Amino acid sequence: MVNDEACERAGDEHGSPKRAGDAASAERVPGARFALGQVVATPAALEAVTRNDVLIALQRHAGGDWGEVCSEDRGANDEALRCGTRLLSVYTSASGVRFWVITEADRSATTVLLPSDY
């Protein structure tokens, strides 16, 4: 059961540098459960992960497939859909690079980054 107090307390602590990318929204991602806002990526992620890997990850993320997150983060994401808090997904590229996709609590932006960028 989701606690309303937890919804009020939860917030976004993400603040890594961003590089602007294409804007995207729930309307532009088939099966999306929430808006992605402006999609951005760190320079390191852009070098390490292919565009195709990013596009697949964004579609999965927007559809509520959180990838390789732990069960605690999976539950937090499911709660975040209801409460409007930050969403985190973890994926591995075709070449074996682990990367994250984070959507801000206000759904204004989604960032693709490497764990070392955080």
Give structural notes.
This protein is of the alpha+beta class and 118 residues long. The chain has one domain (19-117). Helices cover 31% and strands 22% of the residues. It has helices spanning 4-9, 43-48, 51-62, 71-83, and strands at residues 19-23, 38-41, 87-92, 98-103, 109-113. Strands 1-2-5-4-3 form a 5-stranded mixed sheet. A hairpin with a 5-residue loop joins strand 4 (98-103) and strand 5. The termini are far apart. Residues 1-27 have low confidence and may be disordered.
Give the tags.
4 helices, five-stranded mixed sheet, disordered N terminus, alpha+beta, 118 residues
Q: How would you summarize this macromolecular structure in one to three sentences?
A:
This protein has about 120 residues and is of the alpha+beta class. The protein is about 30% helix and about 20% strand.
Structural class: alpha+beta
Percentage of residues in helical conformation: 25-40%
Overall number of structural domains: 1
Summed up, the helix count is 4
Describe the main β-sheet briefly: 5 strands, mixed
Q: Categorize the overall geometry.
A: globular
Distance between the termini: 30 Å
Which blocks of ≥5 consecutive residues have pLDDT under 50? 1-27
Q: Strands of the largest sheet, in order across it?
A: 1-2-5-4-3
Please provide the count of β strands: 5
Please trace the helix and strand order, writing H or E for each element. HEEHHHEEE
Calculate Rg over CA atoms. Answer: 13 Å
Strand content: 15-25%
Mean pLDDT, to the nearest integer, reads 83
